[in-house]
Amino acid sequence: MMNLLEIKDLHTYFEGNGTIIKAVDGADLSIREREVIGLVGESGSGKTTIANSLLRILPETGRIVSGGIIFKGINIRELSEKEMQFKIRGNEISMIFQDPMVSLNPLFTVGEQITSVLKLHQDIGQKQAKTKAIDLFRKVRISDPEKRFDNYPHELSGGMIQRVTIAMAMSCGPSLIIADEPTTALDVTIANQILNEFEELIGEIGVSVLWITHDLGVIKRICDYVNVMYAGTLMEQGTVKTVFENPLHPYTFGLLRSNVIYYEPKSKIPTIMGELSEIPHQGCKFYPRCPIGDEDCLQESIELRKIDENHSIRCIKPEDAQRLSRSKNHGFQEVY
Amino acid sequence: MNNRNAGSVISRSINLLFGDENTARWETVKKIIRNPNSRIGLIMIGILILVGIFAPFIAPYDPYKLVLTESLEAPSLSHPFGTDLYGRDVMSRVIHGAWIAVKICVIGVGFAFIIGNLAGALSGYYEGWIDTIIMRIVDSIMAFPFLVLVIAIMAIFGPGLKNLYFAIAIVSWCQFARIVRSRYLSEKEENYVRAAEAVGFSDKRIIFGHLMPNSIAPTIVYASLDCALVILLAASLSFVGIGAQPPIPEWGAQIAEGRQLLQMGWWIATFPALGIMYTVIGFSLIGDGLRDMLEK
Amino acid sequence: MSLERYALRRFLEMIPVLFIVLIIVFLMLHFIPGDPAKNILGIMATPERLEQLRKSLGLNEPLHKQFYVFLSQLARGNLGTSIRYKAPITELIFSRLGVTLSLVFVSAVFCVIISLPLSLWATKHRGKFPDYMARISSLFVFSMPEFWTGLLFLNIFALGLGWFPIRGWGSGLLDNIYHLFLPSFILGLFLTALVTRTLRSDMIEVLQKEYIRTARTYGFSDRTIYLKYALKNALLPTITVLGLNLGWLLGSSVVIETVFSLPGIGAMLLDAVIVRDYPLIQGISLVFALAIMLNNYIVDIIYGLIDPRIYRS
Lengths: 336, 296, 313
What we know:
The structure holds three protein chains of three kinds.
Chain A: E1 5-16, E2 19-31, E3 36-40, H1 47-55, E4 62-71, E5 74-75, H2 81-88, E6 93-96, H3 100-103, H4 110-121, H5 126-139, H6 145-149, H7 158-170, E7 176-180, H8 188-205, E8 208-213, H9 216-222, E9 225-230, E10 233-239, H10 240-245, H11 250-257, E11 305-308, E12 311-313, H12 318-327, H13 332-335
Parallel strand pairs in A: 3-8, 3-9, 6-7, 7-8
Antiparallel strand pairs in A: 1-2, 1-4, 4-5, 9-10, 10-12, 11-12
Helix pairs in contact in A: 4-5, 4-7, 5-7, 7-8
Chain B: H1 6-18, H2 23-34, H3 36-53, H4 55-58, H5 90-126, H6 128-142, H7 146-157, H8 161-187, H9 191-199, H10 203-239, H11 251-257, H12 266-295
Helix pairs in contact in B: 3-5, 3-12, 5-6, 5-8, 5-10, 5-12, 6-8, 7-8, 8-10, 9-10, 10-11, 10-12, 11-12
Chain C: H1 3-31, H2 36-41, H3 47-57, H4 63-75, H5 89-124, H6 129-143, H7 146-160, H8 173-207, H9 210-217, H10 222-244, H11 246-260, H12 265-275, H13 278-306
Helix pairs in contact in C: 1-13, 5-6, 5-8, 6-8, 7-8, 7-11, 8-10, 10-13, 11-12, 12-13
């Protein structure tokens, strides 16, 4: 079965004032149909930039330097801007964003905004678009959809607006939805609700999802596969079960270990020492903060190695990593 | 602590603004200098002020002396800007005009600045009926076109530079008051003000010691833009004969004198106009630069 | 709150301001240092003439009574009588109002025609050469005194090249536009300088906003984003600037009408000042103030129409 989306060795850089920022420096991603893939990493790890590269909505200073992006067999990098606008964006691939309160234009009603998307990609008139829009509102469990249609964004709550954006994302029947931390800015209870409903929806309409977040709990809950990013590079990749139960990359291990939910109240929570800013020029990016790294790690470039059927890591010391994860568990596996 | 006279307030404000124990202020000054807009603007206006202050020494000729034998001479080495109808050296008159321009800004905008800040402070801090009264007055004054109201005031009190300062101050303070008031309204809710109130500082102390230093920045931006507007305004008034009266070498008045002579003596009106442009550009740049800085 | 209620509320808020404006206009006559009547008559003052003037202006009555008379006359549409023209001021003003209003209107049209595409163009190429050119030329235009530019253009295009009439007013619509062209072009140019600066920086700010990114994500073309989504948001503060600059426009009309000898009320105001025709000065000032208050009111309503956040909460 051909992959829906295949990103290979993506490099996206930002240039400004003579400096180059390598936001994405070697990322691989594959998504199949009806799959939910998680993309996890700290702020600044390049997760959003991958999404922006995929849709080619990088700011002027950004450029896809190299790498392949193949969607449904089409080379995304070779499409014209017009084709991207009409066929891909909002149509085959849509995106929902983190902060609902600022994602919609405050001067237009939500109804107007969703119908304009419908009318842009599908050959329908205002009346039809309105009916479809209200249907979609109903599907995402917006109460009183006809009334809400004429509301302005500032008249709706955050959760309600997020439902609208989900409706908008689904409106033209995309094959892939990118969710960029959509629940981070919401209340925990609302976030939960929306997460549940979202899970149901994607099951119903059979869409693939790329879920970007720094919240491991969410990944564990709704994703099938997970990709761990650090400093723009993919570090570990695999099914959620494998990676969470048996993290091999030291970074993943550190991430999981520092997650609050695994600890008793009032106990010391370990963290990953250092900061994202110390990145070596060659070799493994995580080396400065890695507990098991040595000079070998600074060699040319580290490849992504397949450990198992559904598990790959970018590390030359998988055995050491395994020893580390088994020895310093602190009851890690039991809680899991 | 008990000396609440004007002198101590002024010196304390200056200390707050420029005192070098306070490195935050120095940082601000450095930022102002770094911004290209404000840097160029400050240099331009600095030169203007210097030229104005030292006008009697810099100007090669007496701006008031009539030398009818040398009238309407084109720009030359002895008269770089030429001479006007009465043989007066245009360059000297333009240089003295700089001093007048400086006076107009400092006195006119200066008074408007002080009055506006006070009114806005009272309005914004106390709210209630003081606010209503002051703001209604502000709205009413601003309901008239700037120029029209100044013209009316000049009509009532008579023409001349002195009345011009007065008229400018009366009309300009309103915008300052509005800016300060809205700033006070939002700053009042900030924690440092609440803390000062909780400790029991007097109203005066809170207004002058805490709120005012934090609200002065946007007014300074407006002050420089207002200077630009005021220069244009004064020139317009002098041009139509209501502002500075001849033979005072105010730039607008000079342009009026050169009005009929554009064909025969273009230099008479053009150089003062360039002076006006120079000054307005300088002040606008300062205002732009300061505003850019504020928004960072 | 609905739009109608918002409109009503703003209207009611204008009333106290209107009252103070009337007081200011009324007091203009009474602020004159010395004896107003003597001031007006100047050297022509004889005791009989002074007494006659005082009687006709009602200056012998107590102040509040004069104010009452002033208000009641106003209510009947009577702005008093001009000392110089010896005619009802209301008539005088109305006969020349058309000229000034056309000047203002055509200037605004020039402004919109030039500044809108200029701002959009500068926004699109921000940081590069066209942007700098637009900003620097705006600054230059803004710094030139209008009367000097007026003189310059008059000399070059009218006196020199003979493309435009030198002075005065024409007859018939087309001829009037011909006479108006140069003066409104100059005023329009200045307005453009003002408006372009704000519109450009507002557009740039809006384009950074998240909802614009959302629009791009959904495949809307740059053109749609600029013209439909970003412009509407950026127009808001610009409308404020444009609308509130009517005051500046009216003020400048005084000067421009003088330079181009247009028979508008701006020029009439200036004449009135020179001959100390105080009732006329009062009348014109009042009309200007009313025009601006009305204009501000309309701007508020338009603002509400565009941005429903203002009144809907």
